[in-house]
Amino acid sequence: MMKLEAIIQPSRFESVKDALREAGIEGMTVTEVRGHGRQKGHTEVYRGREYTVDLLPKIKLEMVLPDKLVNTVVDTILKTAKTGKIGDGKIFLTRVDEAIRIRNEERGESAL
Amino acid sequence: MAGPATPLSVLGAQCEDERARIRKNFEHGAGAKATLLALCELADRTLQLVFKDVLKLHESPADGLSLLALGGYGRRMLFPFSDLDILFLFANDKTEEEFRPLISEFSRTMWDLGFRVSSAGRTIDECKRIEEDNAEFHLALLDRRFLDGDAALFEKLDQRILPPSERTARPFLFSQLHRLTKERLGRYGNTIFHLEPNVKEAPGGLRDYQAAYWLRQIMGDRKDLRGSSAAEEQLAADAVEFLSSIRCFLHYSNARNDNALTYESQAEAAEKSLGMRGSAQRSAAEWMRIYFRHARTLNRQLLRYMDQKMAAPTSLRERFFSAARSVTKTPPPVTGDFAVRGGQIEVLNQQALSDRTIMYAMFAEAARTGTPLGREAERSISYVMTHSELPVLNQAIEWETLKEILAGDFPGVALRPMHRLGLLMEILPEFRAIDSLVVRDFYHRYTVDEHSLRTIEHLQELAEPPDERGVSFAPLWKTLDRRDLLIFALLLHDTGKGMPTDNHVQGSLEALETAARRLGLSAEEEAEVHFLIEQHLAMSATVQRRDIFDPSIVSGFAESVNTLERLQRLTLLTYADIHAVNPEALTPWKAEMLWQLFVATSNHFSRTLDRNRLHASDEKSMLEQVLALEKNAKQSDIERFLEGFPRRYLAVHSAAEIARHFALYQKLGAAPLQTELTAERHGFSLTLLTADRPALFSTISGVLAAWGMNIIKADAFANAAGVVLDTFHFTDMHRTLELNPTENDRFLKSLHDVLQNKAALEPLLQSRDTASRARPPKVAIQTRLSFDDSASAHSTLLEVIVQDRPGLLYDMGSALARLACNIEVALIDTEGQKAIDVFYLTAQGKKLTAQKQDLLREVLQGTLG
Fold it and tell me: What is the ipTM of this complex?
C-alpha cells in the first residue's frame, strides 16, 4: 500500500476530483493549505496597503492506495492537474505498513 | 425449598412487556404526554419494588434515606431511552455511609432491568448550600419528586430547607440559568433553523421549554412578572406535545437517547404524520415547517422569560442611595408612538400599531441604530399581525421606506424580528417561498430563510469584525454605496429555491421582477439587484475553479462585473453568502482567496480606466435609451457627446443621467459652463460640463474647499472633443447648503465666477483656511505615491494614498497644474480618513517622463506631507 500526497493548484481541484472518481477512487482527504516551491509569491498593492502573498494557496490531496492502483492515480493527477506553469505542484509517495478500518477492524488492502 | 423471587426474575419480563405495550400504543397513535407518563409510572413502580426488596434483603428500614426523582423524570416526562435522574438524600454523613452497599445493589438491579440510572447522593445539609459549583444540581432540584424512602426527610427538605434557600438564591439561580442557557443557545448559533436540529438541545427544543419552566419557578410570585396569555400557554403546550412525540419516535427508531432529527427521520416522521392526529400526509419539507413553527413558540417563550430582569440583592446603603438618585433622575425622552427605553424600542401607543407606517418607523430606527425591539413590543406587533379583524392603515410599503431599513448600519436587527413577526413576508411575499424551507444539502446547515438573514448579519458585523476573516472586507462594507441594493439582493437571492424550478437563480430573478414592480424600484436599481442575484455564485466559482493570479482570468472577470461599485457589492455578497452556509464554510484560506480576487480586479479597473474608451456608435442600446428621453436630439449629436469618454462613464451613469448630461452639453454653445447641483442621501453631487483647460480640476476643487465642502468621491472624464464632464460627490461640513437653500444659487454663482475669471479663488480659500485647520486625525495615514507607465498607452497613472482633509484635492490639483500635468481621467475616492486618488496624466500630450515623475513626486510629497 502507498500513501499518495499531492499538492495542486486550487483551480485544478474539481477536475482532478472528477477524474479520480471516474478512475474508481472514492476516498481522499482534502486540505486547504498554503505554501510555495519555486513559484514565488507576489505583492499586490490596494489603496496603499501591500498584500504580500508569499505563501500561495494550494490544495493538498491525501489517499492510501493499493499498489496496483498507484500508477493509475499518479497518471490521472498528472494529466488533470498540469497547466505547464510553475506552481503546478508535486506528488509524493510513501509506503504504508498497515491500514485498519475502525468500524469492523478490517486490516490491509481490504480496509481501503 | 425455593427462596423468595428476586426482582430480576419477576420484574425483568414484566418490564419488557410493559415497555413493548407502551411503544405499541405510541406507534398506534397514543399521545406523547400519555406515553411519557406511562414510562414514568413503569419506572416508579419498578423502582419502588426494587427498593423494597433491597431494603428487605439488607434488613434495613429506610429511615434517613429518601429517593427523589429529578429533572425530566421529576416532571413525569420520561422518554424511552432517557436516564432516570435520581437523588439519594441522606439525613447525615453516617447514614450515607451505612446505605452505600444498599444503593450499589439497588442501582445494579435497576440497570439489569433496563433502566439507566443516573444518580447523585447528598446529605440534607449539603442541599442547603446553593453556590456556583452546584448551580446545575440545584436547578435540577427544582423538579424534585418523592419516590420512596423516608417521607419525613423529604418533607423537611421540600418544605423547610429548600424554600428559604431558593428564595434567597433567586437572583443567583436566575443568573446561572441565564448563563447556561445563553451558552447552550450560542453553541447552536442562536437559531432554531437547523436543517437537522437536535430536538432536545437546540434552540426551540425541549430544553427551551425546560429552561422557561425553571425561570418561571425561580421568579415565583413576582408581581411584575409578564406571564403568558391562555392562548400562548396552549400554543406552548401543543409545541411540547409535538416535540415530545418526535423525541419518543427518535428514541424508538434509534434504540438509544439520540435526539438528532436527521433527514431520514424527517422523511419517516412526515410519512407517519407524526404529531399530527388525523391529518393528511405531508412532504418532509412541509412537516419540517410545522416543526419550526412549534420550535419558534418554545424559543420565543424562553427568550421572553430570559429578558425579564432579576434584581440582585442590595444592601441597605445601596437601597438608600438608589432611592436618592431616583428622585432627581430625568425620565428618558418620550416622543410619538414608540421610544427607546433600557436599550430597547418599546411601544407607547398600542393603538398606533394599526398604522403600518409606525411599525416601519420602529424597524427603521432599529436598523439605523442597532437598538432591538423589546419583547413586549414584539408581542404587541404579533397581536396586530395575527388579528386580521383589526383595521390596518398604510399597509403597502413604499420603496423609499423599505430602503431606510435596508440601508441602515444594522439591517439584521430589523429584518430578523420582521421575519419572525410575519411583517417581512407581508411586504415581500416572495420571501414566503423560503420560510422555514429545508433544502437538503451537505454543506448548508440552516433553512433557506435563516441562511438569507445570516448573510445580512454577517455583513453588519463587519462594523467590528469578530475574527480575521472579515478584517479586509470591513472597509468595503463601511464605505459601500447603495447598501440597500445589496441587502435587497441578499433577501431575494435564494428565493428561487422555494419554487418549482431547476435553476434557483432564474426563480430568484422572477421574484425580483415582481417585487421590483410592486415596490417601485427604478430600472437602474432593479438592474443592479438583477446583476447581483444573477451573478451571486460567479465570484465564488471563479475563486474555486480559476487561477486568480492569472491576469487574463482577472481581466475576464472584470469584464463580467463591469464597474468597481458592482465588484464591491458582489464581493461582499459572496463573502456573506459563503459565511452563512455554516460556521466553518468561510475558512481564512477562502476569505483570503476572495480578497485577492477582489484586489486584483479592483486594481485592474483602476489600471484600465484610461485604456477602455467608448466608441459611441457601438453603444446602440444606450443611444436608443437616451434618444427616447431626449426626443428632439439627433443621434449623431449624442454620439459626438459620448465619443471618447472612458467606458466607466456608461457603467456608472443611468440613461436618465446621461440624457441630462447631454442636455447640458447641448447648452454649451450658449453658455460654455454648465453645472447641476443635486442633493443626495448623504450630501450633494455637482456635475460640471465645460471645455477642458489647465487647472480646471484644481479650481473646482478649490471652490468646493472654500465653501467648506468635503469631497468624498469624484470622477473627471473628457471626451474625444475635449469636453470635460466632472462629477463631485461631497458632504456639506458646515451645513451651509442644507440649512440655507438660497445659498445653493450663491454657491453655483461663486463657482461660475471663479471658473470664468470673474472672481479670484484665493480670497475664498483664505477665509476658510483658519476655520478648517488642524483637527488632528483619528487615524494617521502614510502618504504613498506610485506611478505606472504600463497601465495606459498614452498616459501615466498616478495613484495617491494620503490622509484626507478639507482642501486636499485642491492642493493636489494645484500641484499638478503648476507642473503642467493634464488630468485625462481622475477617480477620487475616500475610505474613512484615507483619500485614494487615481489620476491619468499627460504632459504635452504624452506620458510623463521619468524626470517629470520625480519632480512631481517631490512636489506632492512636500504639499501632502
Answer: 0.85
